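Support request from a user on the community tier.

User writes: "When I paste my structure tokens into the form, the page sometimes reloads and wipes my input. The last time it worked, I copied everything first. Here is what I submitted, just in case something in the input itself triggers the reload:"
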């Protein structure tokens, strides 16, 4: 009996040790896999940040050339390049773990610089000259682009030095200093300029302890970014107007917003971190939990934005399934009548653009973007700022021109892909245009969309469609 007990005890100890070793080995494997995913993500983020730096540098050089150009034709070419680089920079920012509400000034600058140069180039074509007013504005934009480029390259240098890694925007800004403290800091800064320290080296500039601090400091450089006084698309006075959809809604408290954020992020209240409020449009409260963030409108408590920075896995869902999941998600939020327009897949997710449809008319300004994981169908991104700003009851959606009359105004060398459809597109200032949208192809097969004013018959816009196996983007 005694021998049996000892033998059994040995077996038990052996089995326990084996189990511990197996669990330990499995844990090491999982840790290595997680570390590999983290490293790959970090490498991708660094490449994206490098591309962002390159785009901003190209914007700066393009604006410099444009401000010195005497030829309207050359100015138009340079403006087209600047607009393209601005779009690329916005795309890079969207791929980094940043919050648009926290980088409002930078996003606004990039949006406006692209819009303004397009507007100025059209004026140059119409007048066969570049006005001095537009040239002065280009010079001011060039100054901001130069400062932004210098700041980004300084951040990139510190990334390469390993001072910090690209992670979430979470950063607690310092408390506001007294006048005496500000004067002391200014005096200290002047001394440092006269005698650069070894820590800063020849490059100069502030040293950061985190990615969030670096971007916070970057945004402060745009705190006094001026209004562009031009009657062009998406101008600053359009950005500063009321958020139409929530303007009559009552304000909610931070506590109420916290409960809503916990529901949208599917986490306990105790796991939420309050990141502060955003006074932009619409005004929002921001919360985060691990790799997820949610912005809740101060008026009405609606979901304005949601993001999740989970690593991509194997794609198991089709694009059609992802679109259906996104549409169901919008319905679950109480947002009906949204129609998908275009989508694009990247990093294991599919981002779908939805526009509101009213009586068969597609309202493009009322835009919501939903990103769906192609691995498990979870919602990895949501952005409804356009919808919250623009959604309201439109007065006239009845065209003067029929579809056939508008189609007759198209260039004869184009082939139409499908029937035209009525839509609202944004226009100069705070106006909107009712247009007929035609999907066409050029003689060499390139797809594009052409917008004919449903009242005047004017050709208002042409968008090129970039088609790939990942989806379709317009430009």
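"...and here is what came back when it finally went through:"
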């Amino acid at each position: 009996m005694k021998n049996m007990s000892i033998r059994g005890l040995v077996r038990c100890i052996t089995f326990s040790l084996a189990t511990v070793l197996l669990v330990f080995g499995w844990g090491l494997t999982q840790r290595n896999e997680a570390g590999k995913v983290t490293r790959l993500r970090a490498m991708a983020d660094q490449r994206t940040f490098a591309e962002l730096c390159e785009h901003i540098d190209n914007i700066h050089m393009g604006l410099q050339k444009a401000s010195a150009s005497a030829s309207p034709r050359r100015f138009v070419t340079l403006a087209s390049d600047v607009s393209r680089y601005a779009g690329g920079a916005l795309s890079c920012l969207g791929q980094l773990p940043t919050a648009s509400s926290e980088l409002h000034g930078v996003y606004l600058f990039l949006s406006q610089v692209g819009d303004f140069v397009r507007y100025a180039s059209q004026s140059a074509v119409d007048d066969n000259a570049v006005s001095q007013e537009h040239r002065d504005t280009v010079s001011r934009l060039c100054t901001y682009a130069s400062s932004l480029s210098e700041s980004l390259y300084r951040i990139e240098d510190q990334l390469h030095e390993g001072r910090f890694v690209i992670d979430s925007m979470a950063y607690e800004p310092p408390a506001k200093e007294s006048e005496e403290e500000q004067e002391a800091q200014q005096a200290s800064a002047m001394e440092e300029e006269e005698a650069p320290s070894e820590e800063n080296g020849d490059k100069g500039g502030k040293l950061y302890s985190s990615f969030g601090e670096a971007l916070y400091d970057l945004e402060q450089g745009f705190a006094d970014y001026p209004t562009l006084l031009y009657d062009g698309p998406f101008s600053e006075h359009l950005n500063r107007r009321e958020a139409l959809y929530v303007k009559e809604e009552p304000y909610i408290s931070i506590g109420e917003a916290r409960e809503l954020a916990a529901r949208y992020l599917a986490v306990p209240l105790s796991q939420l971190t309050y990141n502060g409020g955003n006074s932009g449009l619409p005004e929002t409260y921001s919360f985060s939990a691990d790799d997820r963030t949610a912005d809740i409108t101060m008026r009405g408590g609606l979901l304005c934005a949601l993001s999740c920075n989970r690593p991509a896995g194997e794609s198991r869902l089709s694009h059609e399934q992802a679109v259906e999941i996104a549409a169901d998600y919008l319905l679950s939020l109480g947002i009906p009548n949204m129609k998908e327009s275009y989508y694009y897949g990247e990093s294991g997710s599919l981002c779908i653009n939805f526009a509101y449809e009213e009586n068969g008319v597609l309202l493009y300004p009322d835009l919501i973007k939903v990103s769906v994981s192609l691995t498990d169908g979870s919602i990895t991104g949501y952005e409804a700022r356009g919808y919250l700003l623009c959604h309201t009851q439109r007065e006239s959606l009845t065209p003067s021109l029929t579809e056939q009359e508008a189609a007759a105004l198209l260039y004869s060398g184009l082939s139409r892909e499908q029937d035209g459809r009525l839509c609202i597109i944004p226009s100069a200032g705070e106006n909107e245009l009712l247009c007929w949208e035609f999907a066409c192809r050029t003689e060499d097969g390139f797809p594009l969309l052409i917008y004919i004013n449903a009242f005047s018959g004017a050709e208002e816009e042409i968008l090129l469609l970039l088609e790939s196996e990942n989806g379709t983007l317009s430009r």
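Agent notes: The reload is a front-end session timeout and is unrelated to the input. Residues 349 and 373 are 4 Å apart (CA to CA). The two ends are 84 Å apart (CA to CA). Escalated to web team.
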